[in-house]
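Q: What does the assembly look like in three dimensions?
Context provided by user:
Components: two
Sequences:
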Amino acid sequence: MSHLPCGDFKRSYSEDEGIFPTNFLKIVTIAFLGLLIALPWLLSGYLVYLTILILIAVVGALGMNIITGYAGQISLGHGAFIGVGAYTCGILATKAGMPFWVTLPASGIMSAIAGVIFGLPSLRLKGLYLAMATLAAQLFLADYLFIRLDWLTGGAAAMLVDRPGIFGFQLKDDRLFYYLVLFIVVVAVFFMINLFRTKTGRAFIAIRDRDIAAELIGINLLRYKLTAFAISSFYAGVAGALIAYFWTVVSPEAFGLSISIQYLAMVIVGGLGSVRGSVLGALFMILLPEIAKNLVKALASIIPPAVPIGNIFPALELVLFGLVIILFLILEPEGLNKMWRSLRASITLWPFPY
Amino acid sequence: MEFFLHLLVLGIAVGAIYAMIALGFVLIYKSTKVLNFAQGTLVMIGAFMVYAFLSQFSLPVAVALLLSLGVAVALGFVIERVALRPLIGEPVLSMIMITIGLASLLRGGAIVVWTTENFSLPKVLPEVSLHLGPVFVSSPYVWGFVISVVMLLVFGLFFKYAKLGVAMRAVSNDQLAAMSMGINVRWVFALSWVIAAVVATVGGLFLGAINIININLEFIGLKVFPVAILGGLDSIPGAILGGLIIGVLENLVGGYLSPIMGGGIKAVAPFIILLMILLVKPYGLFGTREVERL
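A: Here is the predicted structure of the complete assembly.
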């Protein structure tokens, strides 16, 4: 529930349908954008690196939320679709020397095509059976195709990509690359918020809630399910292209099943079917391993060096990941988005309980 | 021809083990409608348990096996009680995700205790190698096949005749009706997880004896998916047939196609087969077709 201030009422439909219900919210959003623009100059290099990772993950998580959170089709193939985008970007940039404003949309489109092909089974398969079909897509693409098409992708060895250039000026510095990523994230968020105000977006939600009922009221299931797969994979492909540019290395193991699971975790921890949830989920799931890493460092300084700490770090990361997911599902199944809303509600209503 | 027979026989032996592990998976799905992503992790933990009791604590064989099974029972019980029960009635995705979380937690725990090294099980079972015509079958395969078939038979009889087995079938058929007939549904849920953990441990024992034991034994769990889905998620005969089909096909693909199409094809083949079968039969070979009402 959002609580509007007393006396704030709508005079027309267009006001009622506006993205920002209050002027205050508009100001907050603009201020937040300003903060994001200033951010790289306020943070250290490592934190800028992390912020870029988070922003890229936001793009991927938004895509994941479209297919799983809004359209209700469980996908375990998101990592592979990100991989398709990364490889498309890498191939176009290195072999054809295309600039980023060509490779980014091209990666998205290539990924969307892959998404539609592997989304075709969704016409007949539901729920868990579909999850398995997308798992098959994930393993086929990431564990087989990316490695075996070695004349194109460089195989198991990595493929090197240069940072993109703009007006003949290469974005070598993370701080400058940040603005490219930020621009794409803003466009992605804006598109997504608006998507669910259109017929297409509403159709996705109808399919999620009750697909048979949706079909009966005239929603073409095949068309909208495939559209959902296409848009979701487009986001994944763009995220993949950004990853390729950011790391400047594309290798198959960066797009394995664990990545798909990580994105699934992002949207579940963040909140299914919400844009804010995707953003919060991406933030949380990228920061979690970093926090784990620092925790291990802190622990290492306390316990004597005789204790072998080498393999505890990857293990601790896994344990934390598992624990967080289990605790979230048991304690707050609606995710960070719900926590954010209750927090905001309790602040606006303070000192009253409701 | 000899090569073909060799692949076929080994495929059947491995397939029987897959079928047994998939049995636990199908059982959980049938009674609780949870897709258990932690089944492979349970296999891995089971293999490590056997290894720990046999080699690290050097206990006698019988004691070590019994203890491992005991741990499996406890683990299955605890998982159901702590993680799964609070989620009863939640959407499918939450159920999947919590088993993924469990898998991650258990894997992390296993790395802390056993690191990522390779271990091999000491030879404990008596050596029985078979010569089936031109085909030589080594001891772990024979044992794995025999024990898996015995386990499958025992569970088959259990579900057909034992009171508890019938109760489990009743719950998978209709939870509400079963509850109103006085069946303790919670016990049935717990029992399915216990059985799943036990078959995973036995499967882990043999897969560990055939290959080596390390943390990646977990990925065997990924093979259980095509096995279970191929036969239909909620069909036990389907799981057995699926296990044999996947075991044999995987070996044949590994033997004939790997030289042409590269090594990765063996691991991916079950999923490609799965995808093709799902396109023709969306609920697997024997899965129950869901009737939906508005």
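Follow-up: The longest strand of chain B covers residues 130-132.
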